[in-house]
Amino acid sequence: MLCLKVRKDNAEKVRKYLARRKLSDNNYRIYGSGKFIYIPIAGLSASRQLGALLGRGMAELSSRRFEPAGNRQGYRKAVSRALGGSEDYSKGYDVMGDIAIIDARSRKSALGLAKVIMGINKGIKTVLSKGGPVSGEYRTRRYVYVCGERKFDAVYRENGCTFMMDVRKAFFSPRLSYERGRIRSLATDGENVMVMFAGTGPFAIEVAKAHSNTKVVAIELNRNAYRYMVKNIKLNKAVNVEPVLGDVKEVALRYKGFADRIVMPLPKDSYSFIGAAVLAAKRRCVVHYYAFGSKDNALAEHCEKLRALLKPKGIRFRVLSWRVVRPYSASEVEIAIDFEMLKKKTA
C-alpha cells in the first residue's frame, strides 16, 4: 500500500503533519527499518498537502505491506491463541470499506481470525474469506461469508474517490492503490486516455477526477463490473469518463488513433492485446503495461515479447520506467512497464 518513507529524525514531524490533515491510514501500523520510518497514508487524495511535504525533502512516496493497527505482540498473541499456535494469518487481510477479506485455511481458522480482526478494528462489520484463486475471463473470485453482517457489497474509498462493488462479481484489489495513484500523477491535462479492462472504474475515475480536461474511455467486458463502473462514474461526478461495454479488441476499432495514453492492467495476458493498443494509439503514445514474469528476468522477458509484437508493425518503443508491483508466487512477480510507442508517419 501507499506510504511515506521518512528518515527517523523527521518522523515525528511528518506523523503530526499527516495526522492534522487526516492523511495517514490508521488501519495499519507504522513500520520502522534501519534509518527510516514507513507511514501508511490514505492515498493521493490531498496531493497539494503531500506535494508541499515532499517538496521540502522531508519524505518520499513509497509502497510496502503493513500489519493491521494495534499492539504488534498483542496482536500476534491474539492470533496465536485464536488459532492454537498456527501462523495462518501471515498474509494479513484486505480492508474494503467495512469489509475485511482474509485468506484462511479452515472454517475454524477463519472464525478465529475474524474475532481478532473485529476486536482490533471496530470499523469492520463483515469478514469474508477467499474461497479460491482469481479465475475465469472476468478475473473474479469466490468469497465465503465468515461472520458479521451477511453482505458482499463494499464501499471503498481511495485517493479522494469512492467505489461501490460486489466483491464476488468484479475484480478489484486495494493493493493496487499505489499504481492507481501513480498513473493519475503521470497523466496530464488535455490528454486522451484509454483504460482497458477497466473493471469498476478505479484507474479511469481517478485519472478523470485529477484532470478535468482529460477525455477518458474506460472499456470493460464484464457486465456486472460495467454496471458498477457506471454507478461509480456518477457517484464521483467523473463526467469526462466514457464507459464502454465490450471486448477491447473490438472497441479499439472504433477509437483508432484516439489515445495519448493507454492503461493495460491485465497482468495475465496483456501482451495479447497489444494489437488493440496499436490501433487505439496516436502516432506517439505512452502505454502502462502490466504483466506477470519470472522474479529474476521479468523486464527482459516482456521487452522481448513487446519487440516481437511491435517490430513487424514498424513500431518502435522505448521503456520509460518499470517497477515490481508485487510478488505473485515464489518464482513470479507482477511488473508495470511504462513505455512510449512511436508509429511511423503515414504519407
What does this structure look like?
By secondary structure, the chain is α/β, with parallel strands linked by helices. The protein has three domains: 2-63, Alpha-Beta Plaits; 72-151, Met-10+ protein-like domains (GMP Synthetase, Chain A, domain 3); 175-342, Rossmann fold (3-Layer(aba) Sandwich). It has helices at 11-20, 47-55, 72-82, 107-120, 177-186, 202-210, 223-235, 248-251, 274-280, 298-310, and strands at 2-7, 31-33, 36-40, 60-63, 94-96, 99-102, 126-130, 143-148, 153-158, 161-166, 192-195, 215-220, 241-245, 259-264, 281-294, 316-327, 332-342. A hairpin with a 2-residue loop joins β9 (153-158) and β10 (161-166). α3 runs antiparallel to α4. The longest helix is centred in the N-terminal third of the chain and has 14 residues, at 107-120. The model has no long low-confidence stretch (mean pLDDT 86).
Shape: globular
Please state how the strands of the largest beta sheet are arranged side by side. Answer: 13-12-11-14-15-17-16
The rounded Rg comes to 21 Å
CATH architecture name of the largest domain: 3-Layer(aba) Sandwich
Q: Return the domain count.
A: 3
